[in-house]
Amino acid sequence: MYIKTYNKGFTLIELMVSILIMGILMGISVTVGASTYRDFQFNSYASKLEYFAKYARIHSIKKSVYTGLCIQGKVLTLRDMGANQNNSTDTCDSTKTTVIKTLDMSSEKYITVGATDATNFIYDARGIAYNQDNICLSNGGKYVKYQVKLVGIITTRGASTCP
To answer: pTM for the full model?
Structure first.
């Protein structure tokens, strides 16, 4: 008597090897995906920071008021300081100014915000910056540095941390 045997399916070794290969591929994709997401978040915050600095100048010209960009840690606040020049001494004083917009990056642990010397920037009603300084945003691997000049902003990007 002759018995036919059919070899259907996978052996246990073939199944274990395929699961191992899929596990390795998933591990690689998760780490690449996380770093890609962090880079996306960093670029998003860098764009928003540049927008805030440019919007402060535009708001000053459009409304003929003093506008300030207040930097407190990882929170950036855009404030309308009114038409009176006496208000321009402290951008972060909430009793004398009105908040226009706020950018809060305090939940992002890997992002560092740095400003040299001054912690705020003030534009007068003509859109001219009172204090010319730097704002630097870094995630440890790369940085974006904005140099606020008299009538414009210079952007510098690079690797590593803020210079």
So the answer is: 0.73
